[in-house]
Amino acid sequence: MKTLTAIAIIALTTLTAQAGLFSAVQGMTMEEMKPSMAYTIDTNGINPRVYEFSPKGQPTKFCIMVVLTGDTPSSSLQCFDKTKTQPQPQPQQKNNSGIQ
Q1: Is the pLDDT of residue 16 over 60?
Q2: Is the pTM of this model over 0.70?
Q3: If I label 92, which of 14, 21, 67, 83 is the partner at 20 to 30 A Cα–Cα?
């Protein structure tokens, strides 16, 4: 029974280590993408980093990612449809000729 437990622990450890190795190798082969904009927001000691970009697989989308570091690191990602700039409606002018 002890042998079976030891084999199970070794197998689980090996599988976990291989998953981390696979992620590291996969990350090395990925193309690095530069964001359209990258900046920090000056807040009271938190200073989140903000990245704006368009995903290569979805060129009609625009994404914003906010990353917080420190004691409780976290991140947030929000994507939107890109919109075409619509012409602003012109104010209607009065017709002084009496013809409508």
Answers
A1: no
A2: no
A3: 83
